[in-house]
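Note to self: keep these together.
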Amino acid sequence: MKKLKVLALALLCAAFSPAKADEGMWLLQMMQEQNLADRMKAQGLKIDIASIYNPEQLTLKDAVGIFGGGCTGEIISPNGLILTNHHCGYGAIQQHSSVEHDYLTDGFWAKSYQEEIPTPGLTFRFVERIVDVTEKVNEDVKKGKVTEAETFGSKYLKELAEKELKKSDLKKAPGITAQALPFYEGNRFYLFYIKTYKDVRMVAAPPSSIGKFGGETDNWMWPRHTCDFSIFRIYADKDGNPAEYSKDNVPLKSKKYLTISLKGLQEGDYAMIMGFPGSTSRYLTESEVRLRMEATNVPRIEVREARQNVLRKEMAASDKVRIQYASKFAGSSNYWKNSIGMNKAIVDNKVLETKAEQESRFAQYAKEKGNADYEKVVGQIDEYVKRVMPIQTRNTYFSETFRSGIEFSAPQAAFDELKTALQKENKKDIAKALETLKKEFANIHNKDYDHEVDRKVAKVLIPLYASKVSAEALPDFYQTVQKQFNGDYNAYVDALYDNSIFASEKNFDAFMANPTVEAIDKDLAVQYTVARNAKYKELADQLSNARGDINLLHKTYVRGLCEMYAPTPKAPDANFTLRLTYGNVKSYDPKDGIHYKYYTTLKGVMEKEDPNNPEFVVPAKLKELYASKNFGRYALPNGEMPACFLTTNDITGGNSGSPVMNGNGELIGTAFDGNWESLSGDINFDNDLQRCIAVDIRYVLFIVEKLGGCKNLIDEMNIVE
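Structure:
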């Protein structure tokens, strides 16, 4: 019991240094416990903290949710209208695009419910309830139902969530699931009840020349002029419950939605963001930061750059390929550039030195306290890093090459099923297996896959992987390259992409007409896939074994750091759960002699225009609106059109699409990026450099109304002047 009391105190701590109030991705359910209200009001919050989160009533929390698989969205009308980023909706926009209907290039504007497009697979999830289950987990450990190490595992956490859901009054509620997760490196556990809506329809999206203005060049950069937004809508059954798509579904009657402010913003104004930050690692040791740099970022940069060079060339040569690979390229490029920027910022911002200084302080604290676990934990983590560095490096090369890079393969499980059926001469099972293969063939040769483009990617990545890892990390098909193709990678890839069963419809049909075990065993794609999967499992097992008790070491280290820095509050690392961050609108000075003001305007779009660079093309209609100054009520007092702005909010991936709210809880913008100089922020927050880049809500509404002609959408929002 004494340890639990110490831990409860420790969780009101700062892990690194006395934190300024704008650092931290705060848990809503801990705001009262951590006494954040006074800090937030000192920054400029005007509403009661209970109107942000209160489990007993509707609050701002109920207007924010998870858009798709990894972004945030907010409800901005009583009819289920979702605002998120253009890059978050990009996959859906691309899904609906074709050469004939190129919504990526031209944009999409629904003028009525009937014009809104269903988007299969797209979901929107709300956090219905949050419950502290720390005592339940500790009790399970105490009773021997689970080991302390097992409490980090997905198996235990899934079983815990299912058990609690069965006991809950929400167990029969439509669309409800439960998820249990560790916080503070396993020192605390929370259960989230999630309501998922599965009928989400595309409503509006600007042309990519607006929604992705600046492209790769401006990504992670300031000044920024990207109107990074898209709009969707939730549909539900007639009772407002989550339901699969049906023409009978109706727009959701939102129980909570955000008021939109056109009042504008000034430097120093309060700004808060609510959303789902994906992952931060601010409790890493110095050696673990080096591990991130060398074993994750460097391999990712090298492999993605090689693949993107191929895709960039092929996309420029064909509109069909451009549309097919638009979303894939954007996703790959985003964290390719992030990894480059992170490694640079770690050095520039002296993150390694900061970590070393912290460890020195911690060693002194542990010695004074006489805690043997604390005294040895950093050394134990360093030993862990030595073990896993070479394994994690080659695993990253493998994953980036064969799991994220090359798409073509053969469905191993489906072919195994067919082989078994053929060997047993079971006609029923043979027919079933062949039907499965038909579906798998369609899955691989989908509308967003180009066999010839992927062939070119494979010709680059397969030899690149071999040049980066030791021989024992090579899948067995590399022996085929040497023995059957005399080490000629191009010849091997051509044979793989020309002759395999899944290489073409002609080959597939011929096999389906006469399926044999011999044909399966001789197939290069089957051999490639079997070898790839076997090596992946081998490397993953090696990494898992090398990790040892690292989770428990982190748990000890975080607890010790918290005790050392108590009682200043500190948020746990991000893990894609609902968080709030507060700060201010603020400019910054990245280098000597350089000052960046806190906002940009449409004038900057025109100044950046380059009709010969697809990243900086400006649509003719936008130029017309700019020339006529037809900005309506969305202009600044001086007549200019605001574009983007900066805040000191603490965000990371997953926050994309998050609402930026003023001191009254009104929507003033949508977060979409961080700045280049602070890309080490996931590891070490820098109050002087860390900035969130947001698109001004006035720019969004201007584009919706004046360029998109969707006054219908403006009219359903609650806008205050």
